[in-house]
Amino acid sequence: MIRLAIQKSGRLSEDSLNLIRECGISFLSSSYKLKTEATNFPLEILFLRDDDIPGYVQDGVADLGIVGQNVLVEAGFPDLEVEKLGFSKCRLSLAILRSEAYNSVADLQGKNIATSYPQILGRYLAGEGVQANLHTISGSVEIAPSIGLADAICDIVSSGSTLLGNGLREVETVFRSEAVLIANQQLTAEKQELLEQLQFRMQSVRRARR
Ligand code: ATP
Ligand code: ZN
């Protein structure tokens, strides 16, 4: 039996469940249960907050997980990635108030930047030779500039309408992300074999979708 952690409810949940079903794996799921067993594959599915998934897979509480690369890299475990899954594509971008002038990332030198991704942003800014004050906040990052909490933000951007609604404009892409399958690095030979079967099925699903 191999244990896979997926997001309980959020932007990854539906596509994660659909992928497992398209792999030919059947299971009963009800919205209040925290785990379920597949009926035709030795798989147990755990439903968790996405932020907790990298740590649980690193520690072996779960053998496998499906999570965004943004959360995986921020958690500090990029090496757990074993397969790109092609959904939940998004980007982390820097944005500033629309009224502010902007020429290059050097303009952020010494500024206050609010983000939920201090590790990814810190590395990006260091690579650009920019020193800024990062303020880590866990949600509603987009309102920080308009209430005077920060000069800029770094957050997930998809449509741009949230930025617009908060008087912001995107100025730099910091990181591109998609959902990935992750795996514990000390799987038993038996679980490694199950992982390979799952990867094979996931690759077939992706080929068939194209
Ligand atoms: P949880 O309650 O599990 O912590 P959350 O609020 O942190 O959930 P979601 O908003 O459900 O997270 O997003 C989960 C993941 O989906 C993100 O980490 C990112 O990888 C991806 N994602 C976020 N926003 C988008 C988007 N607009 N388009 C595509 N993918 C996205
Ligand atoms: Zn989360």
Automatic annotation (TrEMBL):
Alphabetical GO CC annotations of the entry are:
cytoplasm
GO MF annotations for this entry?
ATP binding; ATP phosphoribosyltransferase activity; magnesium ion binding
Keywords from the UniProt entry:
Amino-acid biosynthesis, ATP-binding, Cytoplasm, Glycosyltransferase, Histidine biosynthesis, Magnesium, Metal-binding, Nucleotide-binding, Transferase
Superkingdom assignment: Bacteria
Q: Which reaction does it catalyse?
A: 1-(5-phospho-beta-D-ribosyl)-ATP + diphosphate = 5-phospho-alpha-D-ribose 1-diphosphate + ATP
Q: What is its EC number?
A: 2.4.2.17
Q: In this protein, which residues make up the domain named ATP phosphoribosyltransferase catalytic?
A: 49-203
Q: Where does the protein principally reside? A: cytoplasm
Q: Does the keyword Phosphoprotein apply?
A: no
Subcellular location per UniProt equals: Cytoplasm
> Which cofactors are required for activity?
Mg(2+)
Q: How is its activity regulated?
A: Feedback inhibited by histidine.
Q: What pathway annotation does it carry? A: Amino-acid biosynthesis; L-histidine biosynthesis; L-histidine from 5-phospho-alpha-D-ribose 1-diphosphate: step 1/9
What biological process terms from GO does the record include? L-histidine biosynthetic process
Report the sequence similarity comment from the record. Answer: Belongs to the ATP phosphoribosyltransferase family. Long subfamily.
**Could you tell me what this protein does?**
Catalyzes the condensation of ATP and 5-phosphoribose 1-diphosphate to form N'-(5'-phosphoribosyl)-ATP (PR-ATP). Has a crucial role in the pathway because the rate of histidine biosynthesis seems to be controlled primarily by regulation of HisG enzymatic activity.
What protein name applies here? ATP phosphoribosyltransferase
State the organism of origin.
Answer: Hymenobacter cellulosilyticus
Q: What is the lineage of its organism?
A: Bacteria, Pseudomonadati, Bacteroidota, Cytophagia, Cytophagales
